[in-house]
């Protein structure tokens, strides 16, 4: 479509807003000491791109005295949040440039922030491009797949792996670390 030729420019302009040091109205503190970073952001973009952040922002509206809204996200590392924030602003994410463990962290962060379009995309990428890695790291991946009800594709993939290669998984030294509930 000819009309879509302007989307890359819009996306780039929105990404440039992230570097704006004057008009931001939200600070987001991510990570746990000593790995904490504060990101500047914009309420209107966060409100429309993340239902989770929208909920937080609706209870912490900016006060008329010019005070910024401050959000804490200790469960997400600064490196992963930087990737997610670029996705939120620019609508682009190329998972090919990350190793599988980073992609899993992106998936978990997307789930926490309720980024519904990113969750199936990330799961599909892992299954279609990192199946060997999932198999080699099966126990932690299996456990991760049950951390969220939105990881159904990953759960199905892991369950199929168990049915096809049960002896390999049951003989794994990590097998006993699978919670009873997950099994």
Automatic annotation (TrEMBL):
Concerning SUPFAM superfamilies, the annotation shows: POZ domain
What's the domain of life for this entry?
Answer: Eukaryota
InterPro entries to which the protein is assigned, alphabetical = BTB/POZ_dom (IPR000210), SKP1/BTB/POZ_sf (IPR011333)
Gene3D superfamilies, per database record: Potassium Channel Kv1.1, Chain A (3.30.710.10)
Matching Pfam families, A to Z?
Answer: BTB
**Ranges for the BTB domain?**
24-97
Question: PANTHER family, from UniProt?
Answer: SPECKLE-TYPE POZ PROTEIN
Name the record gives this protein = BTB/POZ protein
Q: Which organism is it from?
A: Rhizophagus irregularis (strain DAOM 181602 / DAOM 197198 / MUCL 43194)
């Amino acid at each position: 479509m000819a009309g879509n030729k302007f989307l890359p420019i819009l996306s780039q302009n929105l990404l440039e807003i992230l570097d704006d040091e004057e008009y931001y109205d939200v600070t987001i503190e991510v990570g746990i000491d000593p790995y904490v970073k504060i990101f500047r952001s914009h309420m209107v973009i966060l409100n429309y791109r993340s239902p989770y952040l929208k909920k937080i922002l609706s209870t912490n509206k900016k006060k008329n005295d010019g005070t910024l809204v401050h959000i804490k996200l200790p469960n997400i590392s600064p490196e992963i949040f930087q990737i997610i924030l670029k996705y939120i602003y620019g609508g682009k994410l190329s998972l090919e440039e990350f190793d599988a463990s980073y992609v899993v962290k992106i998936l978990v962060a997307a789930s926490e922030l309720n980024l519904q379009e990113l969750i199936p995309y990330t799961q599909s990428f892992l299954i279609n491009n990192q199946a060997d890695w999932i198999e080699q790291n099966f126990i932690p991946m299996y456990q991760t797949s049950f951390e969220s009800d939105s990881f159904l594709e990953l759960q199905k993939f892991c369950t199929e792996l168990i049915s096809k290669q049960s002896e390999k998984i049951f003989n794994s030294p990590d097998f006993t670390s699978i919670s009873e509930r997950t099994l």
